[in-house]
Amino acid sequence: MNAAIASTLFLCMMPSIQLPIGFWQVSPTNRVTVDGEAVVMKIVKTRAAVIIHGMQLYPIRPEKAAKPQQHDYQMPKSLLVEALSADFDVYALSYAQTIIVDGISVSEGVRSNIEKLRAAGYKEIVLVGHSAGGMIARHFVERYPKSGVTKVIEVCAPNLGSEFATINLGLPKLQIPIIKSLDPKTRINISEYANPLSKEIEFVCVVCKVRGIPGDTLVGLDSQWPIDLQKQGIPASLVAINHFDAMKASHSVNLIGELAREKLVRWTPEQVETGRQILFGREADMAAIKKADVRERPLLKLLGKKLADR
What we know:
The protein has a domain at 3-200 and 247-262: Rossmann fold, CATH 3.40.50. The chain contains 13 helices and 8 strands. Helix 2 (79-85) runs parallel beside helix 10 (250-261). The protein has helices at residues 3-13, 79-85, 101-105, 108-119, 132-143, 176-180, 184-191, 221-224, 227-231, 250-261, 269-279, 284-287, 298-302, and strands at 21-27, 31-34, 47-52, 89-95, 124-130, 151-155, 202-209, 236-240.
C-alpha cells in the first residue's frame, strides 16, 4: 500500500473532519445554512432529495474553492430542482473543494445536515450526486448505512477516476488534493477497500455518453459503472449527454427525476451481463437515452421495464 492510499484510508477512518459546508433548502423555499448554522426547514413532502454538485475548477479565482458555492443546477428555478420538487422537498449541498474527495463524505458538515433531514421526519432521503458529488454520496452511505439515506443516484461519477486528474500543469493549488484524489491509479487501489453497499439502500448509476467515444468527454463508461458496483447488482441507465450538461438537459433531468421517484431493485447477474454487452458494446450509442421519448430506448426495455421487473 503506497503512502497516498494509506493517508486516504486513515483520513476516512477519522471520526470527524471539519470542512466548510453549505446546505440550502431550494424547494419549496430557499433557506440556507453555512458552516453548521441552524436552518429552519419547511417540511411539505414526506421525501427529501439532496443535490450534491461535482468538482469545479477555479483557476482565475482560486479562493472560491475554499468556500461552498451553489451551482446553477442547484438553484430553485433550475430544471433539476423543478423536476424533483413535484415529489420531494429539495435541498442542495455544497462543500469546500480543498481536501480529497474521500474526506468530504465523512466531514462533520455533510453528516450533520443529513442527520437534520432524518430528524425532520422524512421517510425517504435521496442523494443525487453529479461527478465527484456522486462519489461523495456513495462514500457517505458506505460509511454510514444507517444514516436514513434510502437511495443514491450517481450521475457520471468517476468511481475509478478520470484521466483529467493526471494533468499536472496549471492546477489551482487549493484544489490539488481533490483533483489528485480522482487519479485512476488511486481510485482503483482504494476501491479494493470499499465497504459493500447496504442492500436496504437503493442505488443506480446514470452513465453519460457522447456519441462515438467510450465516455462523457471527462469520465469513461467503465468508471461511471465500475466492476465492483456491477458485482453488487447495481443497475445502470445510459443517457446521451456530455459530462457538463448531465444535470441541465431536459432528457437527462427527466431521467433523474424518474429514477428518484420509482423503486429500484438490484439487477440479477444475467441483467448485469446484458447491460455490460449493451453499455460497453456497439449498441451503446443507439441504446442511450436521447432527447427522443425516454420510454422507447432499447436499454431500458431489455433490462426489465425501466431498471427492474416489478
